[in-house]
Amino acid sequence: MFHHSHSVSETEAIAAELARTLVGGECIALDGDLGAGKTQFVRGLVRGLGGQPRTVSSPTFVLLNIYDTGRLPVYHLDAYRTHGPDDFEAIGFAELLEQGGVVALEWPRRVAEVLPDKVIHVRFEILSRQCREIQIARP
Predict the structure, then answer these.
(1) Could you give the domains of the chain?
(2) Does the predicted TM-score (pTM) go above 0.90?
């Protein structure tokens, strides 16, 4: 499924639409360049699940942020600063997948070896300063 977003609010709305279909146990791999909208997408997921989008921030330096939405917890991870799958496993990635929440992972290519079989892939492509193409592929 392809979407075009021309603003932060449109990116969040696309994510909120996806969030309404989530039941827990999903892993969402967010792939795209710096500034493509990955963290904004997570804000939309949190909003769509009933949480406070203002609480969402990039987990680049802390590796993991947890958001209580009232419906499903969102585990927001960033693999950008990890040195591979072993580092990622050390922070408890496998255990997070078993918690029944939603795992949203930025920079999934860095840890592709440890991703579960069933992943929702969200790919961001910067088409212009004001336009992003967002491709959502469900298993």
Answers:
(1) 2-137 (3.40.50.300)
(2) yes
